Amino acid sequence: MSAVGSTRGLLTPTAPTPAKRRRRFLASGEGIAGLAILLFVVAVALIGPLVAPHALDAPIGPPGAPPGDGAPLGTDVLGRDVLSRVLYGGLSVLRLSVATIALTYLIGGTIGMLAGLSRSHLDPLLMRTVDIFLSLPSLLLILLLIAGAGQSEVVLIVAIVLVLFPGAARIVRTATLEISTAGYIEAAVGRGERTVAIMRREVLPNIAPAILADLGVRFSSAIVLAASVNFLGLGASPPAANWGLMIAENRPIITTNLWSVLVPAAFLALLTISVNMIGDAYVRSLGRSDRR
Amino acid sequence: MSSVAAPPEATVAGSEPPARAASPGRPVARFLRRRLAAGLGTLLVASVLIFLATNALPGDVAQVVLGKSATPASVSQLRTDLGLDEPLVERYGTWLAGAVQGDLGQSAVRRAQGVPDAPISEIIGTPLRNSFVLALITMALLVPLSLLLGTLAAVRAGRATDYGVSYGALVLGALPEFVLGTFLILIFFSQLDLLPPVALVPPGASPLANPDALVLPVLTLLGVSLAFCARQVRAGVIQALRQDYVMMARLGGLRERRVLWRYALRNALGPTVQTFALSILYLFGGIIVVESLFAYPGIGQLLVQAVSTRDVTLVQGITLVLAAIYIAVNIVADLIVVLLVPKLRTGLR
How confident is the model at residue A61 (pLDDT cuts 50, 70, 90)? Predict the structure, then answer.
């Protein structure tokens, strides 16, 4: 839930230069803190599987045992090491959200740029088609697709992309429309360049701030949606380790070993909060603020 | 602010023909007609999407529901029962025609389990009511609380309350519902032992019979949406406080409290209603997760169960009903905004 949606003022000549933006971003405590937290979580997710002391599906003690020798965070609902599963469980969260966000902007960006550059009926046609996927609430559409196509990582990625790309397409279209009358675009069209080349070389670099401003919120939605589906038990199948799934699995033993729920929840919280902090700091480094 | 009052702009500008000023209710009626038509169109598109998503993708429903060990005879029996042998377009027509008359078909899984009659419209009745109760309580708390917090933060812009609301929005709004709900369970159940960690409702009982159980689910939904709404209210009030009429009211010697309530807050309401509409729409997703976390027998939990057992017909029915409610809420919210903000009304030709 966010009010981001307008690109006004981001792409005008008065917009701050990249150097100034970087200075402003680094001067904000929020941006630095967000980056530090994100780096920490990403490091745990990437390095975790290499340093985990136990296998992710090997029972090492009684179910739901509190922290003790050999298991600093205790054991989970099936007697497996919570620490090891936390260390393994970040990778799938990262993989899912990075894959969805990349596809979201690849598809949404292409459609948005095509629609924004087109001066024909292609624009309304593309945007109306995109709107179809907004006729249902996000999580509802995702669950619908899982019900139809079965439970798998590919289905989950496709479903989340379908939910997220309409918004990305709209942002990119608005931004493209705003610069579509600029001299450098007209010149490229006049030179007879191909649309793909214009999109890549002229449009994309110039609408990058608008995309980046939108990225934080959308990335955080991707993480939340993927984690929620995993929590509902409709994503990764056991014995896979995934922070969302771990919270659901270990709910029954919350009274005997609360760490089995608290630690994955804390990692997910740090991940989404840090992404939002970075996004917020970036948007404010552009001089546009919805806070003041 | 009743809908019969003439839009102030019309009288101030004086350029409006008197005929229009005499029937100010008509633009709203026209707006409502147009919105309803568009809403029906959207619902039709949604129904096609729902039907295609659950039918055109690979995998035979009857086979999936009965499992790999099912005999070919029982699979073909279930196929006939559910009408799966007909062509796709015909099945869509039958399904839609039934849905319009309130018949959403039969639950595939329950039929496969040998239940002779399992109408979806009956299965979803009670869960839908339970979810409605949960959503209603949440909204009843969300609206006054966010108006209060948002106004407080706006009046004290740049001070502690303000930063609390702003950073609360950033942190709480970023969390997945189940993470926030888990933290609340850890605090109020594991540590303080104050509240139950589940919100079970016995069959036939009202969810209101055991209000304790509803506290944590409502708190979770509030936590994610309250800070967001308060932040939007704050922005609206700050904007309104900068206007000339507020300065005029102050210069005129009105008390600050009166200036705030009669002038600033009233004018900040328009965008705020849209914020609340957004948060109702948010609840459609939030409730699915929160009901599963607290084992609350609502429509969201039923949907998740239906998805995991791949009860495709039940999923279709639930999604269609929720889509209809979703679109209706959108229209009502737009209507309220138009009624509250006369300025928008004059723009509706």
Answer: confident
What DSSP state is assigned to residue A252?
A: G
Interface ipTM > 0.95: no
- When CB atoms are compared, the residue of B179, B189, B307 closest to A268 is B179
pLDDT-derived band at A14 (thresholds 50, 70, 90) equals low
Nearest CA in chain A to B277: A1
Domain boundaries, chain A: 18-285
Report CA-CA distances (Å) from A243 to A84, A86, B56: 12, 7, 32
B186 touches chain A (CB under 8 A): yes
Q: How far is it, in rounded angstroms, from Cα B114 to Cα B92?
A: 25
pLDDT in tens, A130-166: 888 888 888 888 998 888 888 888 889 999 999 999 9
Cβ-Cβ contacts under 8 Å, B179 against chain A: 227, 247, 265, 268-269, 272
CB nearest B303 (choices: A143, A227, A251): A143
pLDDT tens-digit series, residues B136-159: 999 899 888 888 888 888 877 777
Can you spell out the DSSP letters for B89-136?
Answer: HHHHHHHHHHHHTT---B-HHHHHTT-S--BHHHHTHHHHHHHHHHHH
What's the CATH code, domain A18-285?
1.10.3720.10
